[in-house]
Amino acid sequence: MARRYISDLNWNDVTPRALYLNRRQLIGAGGAALGAGLIGGATAAQGELTPNSWDEITSYNNFYEFGTRKEDPARNAHTLTTQPWSIVIDGLVDNPGTYSMEQIVEGMTIEERIYRFRCVEAWSMVIPWNGFELADLLTRVGVQSGARYVAFETALRPDEMPGVRLPVLDWPYREGLRLDEAMHPLTLMATGLYGEPMPNQNGAPIRLVVPWKYGFKSIKSIVRITLTDTEPHATWNATQPQEYGFYSNVNPTVDHPRWSQATERRIGDGLFASRIPTLMFNGYEAEVASLYEGMDLTAQF
Amino acid sequence: MTGIQRINAGIRLLPVWAIYMAGAAWALWLFWLAATGGLGVEPIEALEHRYGKLALQLIVLGLAVTPLRQGLGLNLMPLRRAIGVLAFFYVAAHLLVWAVLDVQSPAAIWADIIKRPYVTIGMAGFALLIPLALTSNNWAVRRLGPLRWRAWHRLVYPAAALGALHYIWQAKGFQIEPLAYLVAVVVLVALRIRGLGRRVAR
């Protein structure tokens, strides 16, 4: 089942390893102009996409379990115990049970998938994920014929997660996909990025990545996957249904009530960067538009 | 001399121009940090939020001047005009970063002001502060007379409330910090209005 999707982004769209490791040092050494010049030169030939460094991807995160500020997860998430880790898989499956992380990744083809990542807050990155297709896991546990949705749940550990001591959201964080979305070859269970194990602030040890939806759908640090026949509870959708739909597909023509979704800021482009246009389904229209044929995307946003 | 008296004497010695210089220098320093990677990987949002929050903090401090004098005997009155003018300066800087560096296109700026209530009330708060900034000088105080001048400057109460609401409204989920600013503004404005009532009764 693996390799059913080939990315149109490639390693040229990502900062070369030497550069991403050195970028902060170059800038920190007072050589901002030098650093910018080097990076500009190195990336000029790589098309329009501005690459995102390890530093950018791991220092600017929304993971409210560790605090609501972007820098909070990088600062606080080191307390999360990710070994051992297990996921309860239940509901309408043939082989329900508690699966250890080792059992889950065993036999899976870990691929590199370079995806655009678009946050509902109108910023974006390009991220080189490592992971396997969710479809492979669901096929292995056996989806029963009545199942129509997949529900996911993030770990809830007040001892390790300072953010959950406040009622910022209705913990635990939960998300859901329609079964056809979950089975789509783009839908990834990510276990790492840049070839390294997933950093805690990015959702270690295993998270969902659904690149054509706003980032909050890509739930982090998953401890439960449930196959159901009804639309599952989704945290942001339940908190403010007029602002966050169940589908939350990236759509430049449907604004968030508090801001426009027509454009986005690419992280790492600096203080004077121009906004860039947001693409329908975050640039994955050819792959996923057929899932939503006949749906009014303004009403079911 | 008590501790408070010593602080009050120190405040009287502070040249006001130094406060203005420090306020402007801090804004420039933050801008420099944002331009050179010192405010993290998303400097536009970071700078916008830093300026906005400083503005709100200065407004809260300005509202606290009279209660602090009455309650603790701490006299910040010599600095109150500078606090108010710097608050306006930071609101304007926040607005400029939002318009020029964040939203960028004039059409999108206008659309946001019209369509997004939290932007609308933020702009309304800014508009209320403009006459206060324009009349923060001795000439205007003489021209208006102290009673009318004071009446005008009570516009800072609704402006502060709008600023705090603007902060709450842009937050996602239930967050404590923006609510804390609203509570501070409501308590301080209530204290000031109660003080007004007393003065009238006397």
List the helices and strands and how they pair.
The complex is a heterodimer of chains A (301) and B (202).
Chain A: H1 17-28, H2 32-44, H3 54-59, H4 72-76, E1 86-91, E2 97-100, H5 101-105, E3 111-118, E4 123-133, H6 134-141, E5 149-154, E6 174-178, H7 179-182, E7 188-193, E8 196-197, E9 207-209, E10 222-228, H8 235-239, E11 263-266, E12 276-277, H9 285-288
Parallel strand pairs in A: 1-10, 4-11
Antiparallel strand pairs in A: 1-2, 3-4, 4-7, 5-6, 5-10, 7-8, 7-9, 11-12
Helix pairs in contact in A: 1-2
Chain B: H1 3-13, H2 16-35, H3 43-72, H4 80-103, H5 106-115, H6 117-134, H7 138-144, H8 146-153, H9 156-170, H10 176-201
Key terms:
heterodimer; A: 301 residues; alpha+beta; Sulfite Oxidase, Chain A, domain 2; 7-stranded mixed beta sheet; 5-stranded mixed beta sheet; globular; B: 202 residues; mainly alpha
Q: Which radius of gyration of chain B do the C-alpha atoms yield? A: 18 Å
CATH class of chain A: Alpha Beta
Gyration radius of chain A, rounded: 19 Å
Query: What is the distance, rounded to the nearest whole angstrom, between the alpha carbons of the first and last residues of chain A?
Result: 30 Å
Poorly predicted regions of chain A are 22-47
Strand content of chain B: under 5%
Count of spatially separate domains of chain B: 1
Largest sheet of chain A: 7 strands, mixed
Taking the alpha carbons of the first and last residues of chain B, their distance comes to 32 Å
Describe the global form of chain A: globular
What percent of residues of chain A are in strands? Answer: 15-25%
Low-confidence runs of at least 5 consecutive residues of chain B:
none
Count helical runs of chain B. 10
Instruction: Calculate the mean pLDDT score of chain B and round it.
Output: 94
